[in-house]
Amino acid sequence: LAKEVFKKVRNQFHPSGFVSQVRLQSEVELLRSLCESFLGDGNINIGTSEKGIKLLKKALYKKKVLIVLDDVDNFKQIECLAPGGPLGENIWGGGSRLIITTRDRSPLRDFNVQENKIYEVEKLRDEEAFQLLSQKAFKKDNPPEEFVALSKSFLQYA
Asked: Which residues form the NB-ARC domain (predicted)?
């Protein structure tokens, strides 16, 4: 869902960056991913968070940026982007947006996000989840007959 939102609105910003599975990344890895997104280089070695912050400050300074961080689970991962942080919104230009997806509200509270700025996505109904799984896994609205039971058991587990 976050990737789809990013694709829809990214052309309204310059530059824009999307980082998935933030929960699996250290601060340095996240900064490297952001540098790669914003600087267009897929092979950046920043070494330290300080070097990554310095590169990103230059790339983001007073620009209308879009940053999407998908699956954040810890405030420490995104602390550098917090208001007052070294890459906080005071660096970006007007109209910039930071979108954070998380399964847990605590990183948002630690980030001082106002409640009215939090959008909670409703869970899919069973039939919607089944159809989405079928479309993604089998490129059809329904799975082949031999995969129906397996698909349903997978959804019960998820």
From this structure: 1-141
- Model pTM? 0.76
- Closest-CA residue to 127 (of 153, 93, 152): 152
40 three-class SS: coil
Residue 83: pLDDT above 80?
Answer: no
Question: Smallest Cα–Cα separation from 69: which of 17, 12, 11, 9?
Answer: 17
Phi, psi of 18, rounded to the nearest 5 degrees: -125, 130
Q: Which CATH code is given to the segment(s) 2-117?
A: 3.40.50.300
Sheet with 97-102, strands from edge to edge, namely 16-19, 66-72, 97-102
State phi, psi for 25 to the nearest 5 degrees.
Answer: -115, 145
Measured distance CA(121)–CA(50) in Å, rounded: 35
Q: List all residues 6 or more positions away from 98 whose beta carbon is below 8 Å from its beta carbon.
A: 67, 68, 69, 81, 89
pLDDT at 158 over 70: no
Give which of 65, 15, 61 is closest to 41, Cα–Cα: 15
Q: Confirm if 73 and 19 have CB atoms less than 8 A apart.
A: no
Residue-range domain boundaries for the chain: 2-117, 126-157
